[in-house]
Structures are given as C-alpha cells and as structure tokens.
Amino acid sequence: MASQTPPPLTDVAIVLVAAGRGLRAGGPVPKQYALLAGRTLLAHTIEALAVLGAPIQPVIGSGDAALFDAVLATLPASSRALCRPAVVGGDTRQASVLAGLEALQPTKPHIVLIHDGARCHPSAGLLTRAVEAARLYGAAIPGLAVSDTIKQIDAQDLVIQTPERATLRAVQTPQSFAYSLILAAHQRAIQKKIDNLTDDGAVAEWAGHQVHVFPGEATNLKVTEASDFAVMERLMSADLSDIRVGQGYDVHAFGSGDHVWLGGVKIPHTHALIGHSDADVLLHALTDAILGALADGDIGSHFPPSDPKWKDAASDQFLRHDVELVRNRGGIIAHLDGTLICEAPKVGPHRDTIRANIAKICALPLDRVAIKATTSEGLGFTGRREGLAAMALATIRLPYSAS
Ligand code: MG
User: Fold this and answer.
1) How far is the CA of 72 from the centre of ligand 1 (A)?
2) In sequence order, what E strands does 269-331 have?
3) Does this model's pTM top 0.70?
4) In the prediction, which pLDDT does 3 show?
5) Which of 59, 80, 155, 364 would bridge with 100, disulfide CB 3.0–4.6 Å?
6) Which domain holds residue 329?
C-alpha cells in the first residue's frame, strides 16, 4: 500500500523469475498468469515486490510477452514504472535467473533479490530482512523451521535416514545476495554445466560461499497446486476485508444522430444521446458507482464538464481512471452490476458485447460483470423515449485501514 512505501533503494534490484511453464490444474495458461482474487498471480507478486521501490527485472517464458504485457496493464503506474523490460528465460531455472542477472548489469546494483513469481505474498518486512541480510552476509535465504519430521528415502521408498529436525529449514524466496557474488556463481555454474540446482542459495553454496538463513514467513507460500490457489485466495481476501458497495445513476437525453454509445460499444439508433462527452450513460453510472464505493467524489468532480479536455471524450477512460484509483488504494473491484433503462434501442442483441467490453476495460473476469436492461413500460421520460437512464452498483474490496 502506498502509505507503507519506504524511500526507494537505489542500490537494490530484484530478479523476478516467472518463466515456468507449469499450468494451474485445468488452466490454459502458465500458473503465474492464472487469476487469483480477481488478478493474475504475477500482478499480485509484482505489487508485493513494488513496496521496496527497487527496479524489478522480470524473466518470462518465450511466447509469454503478450500475457506479461496484459499483467503490466493491470498494475498501478507506480508499480509498472519499476518493471524493466522483461527478458526471456532459459530451459532451466538457473538459466532464467542468469538471464535476469545479466539484464541488470547496466544498472550496477550492489544487492539483488531473486524471487519466484509464484510467491505472491511476501510481506514488506520479509523483503526488508532479505536486503539487510544480503548486506551483512553477502548470501542469504529465508527459511522456516520444519514441524514435520523429514525422511530421506531411496528409489524403493525405503528410508535411508532421518535428519535431525532442529537442523532443517524449508527455504523460500526472495533469496538475497551481493550482486557480483551471485552473478559470478551463476555464470560459473553454467560454464561447468551444473544446471540442476533448484534455488540460488544452492548456486552460492556450490560456488563455495557461506549462505546465511534468515526468518522466512509461513504466509509466503509458493502457489503451485490448485489447492494452493484456494489457500492464497483466502489469505488475500482476509487482507481485503474492507468491502464497500457504491451506486451510480445517470441520464442523457436523446437528440439527433444515428448511434448511441453504451458500455463503450457503438450501437446504431434513430437518435444519439446528448452530452459533453460521448454520453455513455452506462459507463458514467459505473464510474460513479466505483467512486461512490471509494467515497471519492463523483464523475463531475474528477472530470469537470467545464474542462474542454472532456468534450466528446470516450467514456472508457473515466472507468479506467476509477480502476486505477482502486488499485492505488491496494484494492480490487469485486463486482460490477449495471442496468440500462430504455424502450429503444434494444439492448439484448448487444448485451454480451457490452459486458465483455466492460470486463476488458476493468481487466475483470467476465463473471464479475453483470449487465441488464429493462424498459419502463412506457412510463416516464424513458417510456416516452426522451432519454436513456442507467443504474449501477460496484462492489470493491480494500485493505482494511482504521483511518
Ligand atoms: Mg453522464
């Protein structure tokens, strides 16, 4: 959240490893692009890392550029600005990390954090501990004491030995290093054809460095299985416990013309709607509903009709602005529900297109956008076909703050 953002760390950079091909159970895209609590897993991860204010070097899978660009488009401008152009990873995790480290060479960081895209919930405290540990020790990894007894087994599932539990740690990311140390270790490992190391701590160990373990955190889960998504969704929902509903209402009168704009979709009609902007009543009602949920004025205060800038403006930008406001508060839009009230044009044939367009504008899954239409049975101004009205509700979730 913006209020917690410390001053930028000028000598720290982050390698974000998101090149994996693992699919969420049944999912069509690599799991880092699957949706979790209304956003992609990777968007949550980048937002969590952005708290440090350090540049982020994403490493993505080949062919994932469009998916990654879509993730960037859902980020607040301040987080997006921290992301360097993504580089494409290699066949192994080591190769991907090395690609990220080498891409950071022009920025000459002293400290680098290496973080898995699938860990979307590292706290600001954990990130700070990682930076401090790297400054002190040169190579450091977050670890948790294990509560289960761990057995080493052979290929026949027979126990070979039982390591002493008190000496074991389950390690996580971000792992943190002096940049020159870990870059050299990775380069040497690849030269020596060592490519099966599963974390960067192991690369540093292999290169002969002492690796310090600092406290990790239980909520810094690696989201891999479908069940992990459910657990993380519950965790993140608990963070977004300030649930608000806002309403919006708008009317525009019919005048001469041959089309109307509804939900950002151009619909042929015998009349146009008259307004300072494109007079898209549905987008205006939705814009006001979100502003209502934020308790942040109304469409007129954000986009004054007195400002010539908004003359004939396409109204999707008003809604996009709201989406950005919600993101800047660390929140999500949980649901949008709009109703159009008119005798004509007939909305039914366009409803799916309108719904899909609003979902796209707000970067929401389709099942979080509802669009309905009704007539007013010939009564009132809508019944007399003098104008068109729209009502909307927006449900948003924000981090709970006592202020
Ligand atoms: Mg309006």
Assistant:
1) 30
2) 271-273
3) yes
4) 44
5) 59
6) 242-398
